[in-house]
Amino acid sequence: MKPDQYDFIVIGSGLAGLTFALKASAWGKVCVLTKGEVSDSNTSWAQGGIAAAVGEADSWELHERDTLIAGAGLCDEAAVRFLVQRAPDAIQWLMQVGARFDIAGSTLSLGREGGHSRNRIVHHADKTGWEVERAMVAAVRAESNIHVFQHAFVTSLLEQDGRCIGAVAEIDGLGEKRFTARSTLLATGGCGRMYQHTTNPRVATADGIALGLRLGAKVDQMEFMQFHPTTLFHPQMRSFLISEAVRGAGGTLRNHLGRRFMYDYDPRLELAPRDIVARAIEAEMKKHGTWCVYLDTTHLQPETLRHEFPTIYDRLREIGLEIEKDWTPVVPAQHYSCGGIVTDLHGRTSIPGLYAAGEVARTGVHGANRLASNSLLEALVFAVAAAEHSKDDESPSGADGVATTVKSIPEAESVRIRRSLQRAMTSYVGIVRNNEGLNLARRSIEDLIRDYDSVSASPISAHPLETHNLLIAAREVVSGAIERTVNVGLHFNEDLPAD
Ligand SMILES: Cc1cc2nc3c(=O)[nH]c(=O)nc-3n(C[C@H](O)[C@H](O)[C@H](O)COP(=O)(O)OP(=O)(O)OC[C@H]3O[C@@H](n4cnc5c(N)ncnc54)[C@H](O)[C@@H]3O)c2cc1C
Best substitution site from 9, 32, 42, 311 to test ligand 1's pocket, by max atoms within 8 Å of Cβ? Predict the structure, then answer.
C-alpha cells in the first residue's frame, strides 16, 4: 500500500497537537490523525485555566519558584525556565488565534490555584479547555495546509533505520492507511483510563506511551501520577471535576462532622499542593471510615458561584445539589500523568524524527508533581518548540518503513482485561502505596499481558488495542514506583522510611 505523504504528522487533536499543526502549517503540509471527533480530548475538559505570570505583581521568577517547589526537587530547571518565560507570549498567541479569556477592567482576570503564590490563572469561566479547543479547531479548519482525519486510530508508528518516518492508522470508512512525513508528533494526551476513577475522558488510554515504547523511545517518571483532590462523589456523575479554582475562591474542605480538617495537615490549608490535599482527604476518609469528604461553598456569594463556575454550578444543580446551600461530596480521582516520553527543549524524543508534546511527554517541567494549570501551558510551549525545530528535519529517503503492530482481540475479552487492570491500579497504585501492593500490581499486570497474548486474534478494533496500550503503560507506572526508594512529590509508599 502506497503511503500518503505529508511534511508533518500529528497524532492527537488536543492543545498540543493543534498548536503544532497550526505552527507547522507555515512550513509544509500537515496531517492530523485523531481517534475520535476532533475535539475529543482532555483539553476540552480543562476547567481552571492556564498559568502565566501576566499580573502586575507577578514575574516569571515567581512562577518558576512555585513550579520548582511543587516539583519537589525533581524538575529539570532549564525546562521550567523555558516554560515560564514563554508563558505570557503563549497566552498572547492563543488570544490571536481566537481564544477568549475573562477580563477584569482592561486586563485579564487572573484566578488563583493551589501552590501558586500569585493570582496567575488565565481562564474562561470554568470551561477554559472547551474555549481553547473551540478556538484552535476553528483556526485549524481555516488552514488549507492542514488535513484532519477524524476517527483515525493510530495503531503503530513506522520505522526506517532507527528513525520514525510516519504512522499507520485505522480510519473509519477507509480502513488501514499509511502516512509518511519528515517529522511525527505524538500528542496523544494522558493515561487516566488505567484507573477505575479518573477525571480523564475515554480517549485517555496511554496510546502514545505504548506507541513510543514499541519504537524504543525512552519513557520516565510514570510513577508520578497526580490525583485530583476534589471530584464529585455521586453514582450518576462519576469523577466530575470540581476545579481547584473553587477552593481558590474560598471553598473549604470539611469532614462529615463539619470539621475543617486541613488545619490538621498543612498550614496552606485547602490551597496546599494537590498531592498534600489528596493525601489529607484519603487519610481523613480512612480515619473516619467515610466514603467522601465535603466541599463547603455555602459562605461564598451565590452570584460569584454562578458567574465564576457556571459549568460546575449547573451540572451539580442537575443532580439536586445547590452549592450555595449544600456541601458537595468529593473524593480524589486520577487526574494527570507527570511522566511520559522523555523529550528535550525542542520536543525531540530519543528516536530521530519522533517528537512528543503535551501530557504524553516528560519534558521535565513537572518533576515529582505538577503545579496546577501548568499542563495546558506545557502543551502549548513545547508544541511550538517542536514545530519550530521540526521545520529543518529531512524527509525520509524511502517510504517502506516497518510497522510495530500489536494484535487485536475480541472486545469482550478486552473489557474483562481492562477492568482487572483498573482494579489492580486503583487498589495498589493509588495515592498511598506499599511494597506488597506494588508487587501484587506488577504480577497482575504481567499475568494480564500474558492473558491478552494468549487470546486468539480478531479483526482490528480500538478497545483492545487501547487496553494493550494501558497494560504497557501501567507496567511503567508500577516499575517506576517500585524503583523509587524515597517518597517524593506524588509518590508515597508507606513502607519507605520517613526522611
Ligand atoms: C477534567 C480535567 C480538567 C483539567 N483542568 C486543567 C486546567 O485547568 N489547567 C491545565 O493546565 N490542565 C488541566 N487539565 C489537564 C490538561 O487538560 C491536559 O493535560 C492537556 O489538555 C493535555 O493536552 P494534550 O494535547 O497533551 O492531550 P489531549 O488534549 O488529551 O489530546 C489527546 C488527543 O490524542 C488523541 N489520541 C489519543 N490516542 C490516539 C490514537 N491512538 N490515535 C489517534 N488519536 C489519538 C485523542 O483523541 C485526543 O484528541 C485538566 C484535565 C482534565 C481531564
Answer: 42
Overall domain count for the chain? 3
CA-to-CA distance for 499 and 491, rounded, in angstroms? 14
Tell me the residue length of the chain. Answer: 499
For residue 491, tell me if it sits in a domain. Answer: no
Q: Which helix (H) or strand (E) holds 383?
A: helix 375-390
What's the rounded Cα separation, in Å, for the pair 128 and 436?
A: 41
Instruction: Quote the ligand 1 centre to 28 CA distance (angstroms).
Output: 25
Residue that is last in its domain, among 370, 403, 436: 403
Q: Are 356 and 14 in contact (CB under 8 A)?
A: no
- What percent of the chain has pLDDT above 90? 90
Judge if the beta carbon of residue 43 lies within 6 A of ligand 1. Answer: yes
Shared domain for 195 and 344, answered yes or no, is: yes
Q: Which residues pair with 107 in a beta bridge?
A: 104
How many angstroms separate the CA atoms of 395 and 3, rounded?
14
* 401 Cβ inside 6 Å of ligand 1: no
Q: Answer yes or no: do 350 and 477 share one domain.
A: no
**Residue 384: all three cell numbers together:** 511550538
Task: Indicate the pTM of the whole model.
Answer: 0.94
What is the CATH number for 123? 3.50.50.60
Distance, in Å, from the CA atom of 254 to the CA atom of 290, rounded to the nearest integer, reads 12
Domain match, 391 and 426 both: no
What is the number of other CB atoms lying within 10 angstroms of the CB of residue 173? 5
d(CA 434, CA 481): 10
Q: Is 70 exceeded by the pLDDT of residue 275?
A: yes
Catalytic: which of 274, 442, 475, 484?
274
- Tell me: the pLDDT tens digits for 56-82? 999 999 999 999 999 999 999 999 999
Give the pLDDT confidence score for residue 237 in this predicted structure. 77
Q: Which of 143, 194, 184 is nearest to 33 (CA)?
A: 184
Domain boundary among 355, 375, 403: 403
Q: How far apart are CA 403 and CA 114, in angstroms?
A: 44
CATH number for position 268: 3.90.700.10
Task: Please check whether residues 102 and 41 belong to one and the same domain.
Answer: yes
Q: Which of 307, 461, 384, 428 lies closest to 90 in space, CA to CA?
A: 384
Residue with cell 443532580: 319
Query: pLDDT digits over 22-36, tens only?
Result: 999 999 999 999 999
Q: Domain residues for 427? A: 411-483
